[in-house]
Amino acid sequence: MKIDYDKIYISASQARENAYAPYSRFSVGAAVLLRDGRIVAGANVENASYPLAICAERAALTAAYGAGARKEDIAAIGVVGATDLPISPCGACRQVIAELMDADAEVILYNLKKEKKIFRVKDLLPYPFEAGVLSDER
Ligand code: THU
What we know:
Layout: H1 5-16, E1 28-34, E2 39-43, H2 56-66, E3 74-81, H3 91-100, E4 106-111, E5 116-120, H4 121-124
Parallel strand pairs: 3-4
Antiparallel strand pairs: 1-2, 1-3, 4-5
The protein binds tetrahydrodeoxyuridine (THU).
């Protein structure tokens, strides 16, 4: 499908406004583009117990799955943060992205200057830990 990078940026930026980040004061927004054109967005949601923070990427992807989408339905995810270079997703989110999105789906990283870097899922997390190995242990 033809990906509208401006539309994803706008959705992710709007979601970013909903971030609950009183501890880090670092707001992030993410927008999952479904192949039928719908967008499911999310933002980071923090907690006084700091490690319980949910990143924007996982908020958006779990919302998309909770609404019934599966990896074959997802074309791309866009992420935006107030970074100098386009934002870089954390390792935990890369692992979740690798499981919940197709290896060839796009991950579009933005900053507020609307600069972007575009990756395929498989390039953002090479050699991922995957479900297929779970039966290997003897
Ligand atoms: N964060 C995200 O939501 N996505 C990223 O790609 C990087 C970091 C959040 C987690 C935490 O709430 C805040 O940004 C600071 O780490």
